[in-house]
Design a protein that fits this description.
Number of domains: 2
CATH architecture of the largest domain: Alpha-Beta Barrel
Shape: globular
Order of helices and strands: EEEEEEHHEEEHEHEHEHEHEHHHHHEEE
Number of strands: 17
Strand content: 15-25%
Number of helices: 12
Radius of gyration: 21 Å
Helix content: 25-40%
CATH superfamily of the largest domain: Metal-dependent hydrolases
Bound molecules: zinc ion
Structural class: alpha/beta
């Protein structure tokens, strides 16, 4: 598993904030600590600076004298959630009506601002960590822009979630290349062909500061006319990319729609497999054996998502391709869940669904038979372990960062409460409260109704 890979240390990607040493005691109605065990009633969590120093039921944990008491009465406390597959720099569903128009009209500089805004929308809803798997544009890859968003948040000059950034490292005409219109000029080093060009592209992304090298071994769903089962990379090319990522102590995330791609990813030593589309029992067994986490990205496959794409101007042949993939995705999820593959929540949010509604993904999992507790773990413990942050994050335990979300409701009874902004009463990252919607409080990261839709056409 990613956690015991000594060469991979993404935690070094951001500086640890200074420990101010303030002690805060957080109390609530229930605690889901992320480990999957019984819910703890009347929990008390003692936080010093950024980290949790004690946690347990009331009466069993000593409250330090002089500590600040933060009571989120009636709420269920869960670990800060993570979306392991998102594209905050995608041109763009929240502010433009047509994503193709946005790709021509919006400068990279403006889109970078929207990336931050998109990330903040997720943060406001309890997503304290996002793994952004990159983007391209007519003026080059977006790796530097996304790294700058990450770094400005880490520096504390802007509020937002902790981010890991992926740099696109793919072949000419790959699925990820075709996120841009086919006729759009590609300026800059957007693609590579053959192991040595791809090594150089990976190294360039790493130079720019990516945490993850993102690549693509098969066709995809949401782009152009390419079939999802085409081959997007040779074994030699994929081996080279994963080798470069690992040489720099970083991870490799591989987009795989087919079993052919999944097998190549296993052979190349991929750290995560992205998407659940096609599968067979033998390859599922191989993924399980290799211990590679998989992100489902199923919200992206729903009828609602397809309808959103229609409204954003996506071509009909793409929409019908998405619809044809849908039953395969759902079946693969059920088979992989049953087989015990480690599932790390990822939405592929970008075009759709809208930023902040990431927990919709968990509703899809529960609808397909996953228990609500397991669904929560895909976005907490499993997610943290999948992206190499399991030592510091993913559960509410002594020693870990105090990334905690207070939910007014019981997500085990109704997973949909996680999608309701009015139910997300508090979002804490590293011991600091960023959103506070308890009765009598109204702190939000993104101002409520403080932004508007822009439309050039
Ligand atoms: Zn993606």
């Amino acid at each position: 598993m990613a956690d015991n890979k000594q060469w991979w240390k993404p935690e070094a990607a951001w500086p640890t904030p200074e420990n101010k040493g303030k002690t805060v005691v957080l109390t609530g109605a229930k605690l889901i600590d992320g480990n999957g065990g019984p819910v703890i009633d009347n929990p008390v969590i003692v936080i010093k600076g950024e980290r949790i120093v004690a946690v347990g039921a009331k009466g069993k944990v000593q409250v330090p004298p002089g500590a600040e008491i933060l009571d989120v009465a009636g709420c269920t406390l869960i670990p800060g959630m993570m979306d392991c597959h998102i594209h905050t720099a995608m041109f763009n569903c929240m502010t433009f009506h047509n994503h193709r128009v946005a790709q021509w009209e919006v400068t990279p500089q403006l889109q970078q601002m929207y990336s931050l805004f998109h990330a903040q929308n997720c943060f406001d809803m309890g997503f304290t960590t996002l793994r952004d798997l990159g983007m391209n544009s007519s003026r080059g890859l977006f790796t530097q822009e996304l790294c700058a968003v990450r770094d400005s948040i880490n520096a504390g000059i802007l509020e937002g979630p902790r981010m890991l950034i992926g740099g696109f490292t793919t072949i000419t005409g790959s699925h990820l290349d075709l996120i841009q219109p086919r006729a759009m000029p590609r300026s800059g080093f957007n693609n590579g062909d053959g192991p040595y060009e791809l090594r150089k592209l990976a190294r360039t992304n790493l130079l720019w500061g990516c945490d993850v090298v993102k690549t693509c071994a098969s066709g995809g769903g949401g782009t152009d006319k390419e079939e999802p089962d085409i081959v997007n990379m040779t074994q030699e090319e994929l081996d080279a990319i994963c080798d470069e990522a690992h040489a720099f102590h970083k991870a490799a995330a591989v987009h795989c729609f087919t079993t052919n791609a999944q097998r190549k990813a296993i052979k190349a030593g991929a750290d995560t497999i992205e998407h659940m589309v096609y599968s067979d029992d033998e390859t599922i067994g191989m993924i399980k054996e290799a211990g590679i986490p998989v992100t489902p990205t199923l919200a992206h496959r729903t009828d609602h998502a397809i309808q959103l794409r229609r409204e954003l101007g996506t071509a009909e042949f793409v929409l019908s391709k998405l619809k044809k993939l849908q039953p395969h995705c759902y079946t693969t999820f059920q088979k992989m869940y049953k087989a015990g593959i480690k599932i790390a929540m990822g939405t592929d949010m970008g075009f759709e669904p809208q930023f902040g509604t990431n927990s919709w993904e968990l509703e899809v999992y529960v609808g397909l038979g996953m228990t609500p507790m397991h669904a929560i773990q895909t976005a907490t413990k499993n997610a943290a372990e999948a992206i190499g942050l399991g030592r510091d994050l993913g559960t509410i335990e002594t020693g870990k960062y105090a990334d905690i979300v207070a939910v007014n409701g019981d997500p085990l009874a109704d997973i949909r409460v996680l999608q309701e902004k009015k139910c997300i009463h508090m979002v804490m990252k590293e011991g600091k409260v960023y959103a506070d919607r308890r009765p009598g409080h109204s702190k939000n990261v993104v101002p409520v109704d403080g932004w508007k839709k822009i439309d050039y056409l």
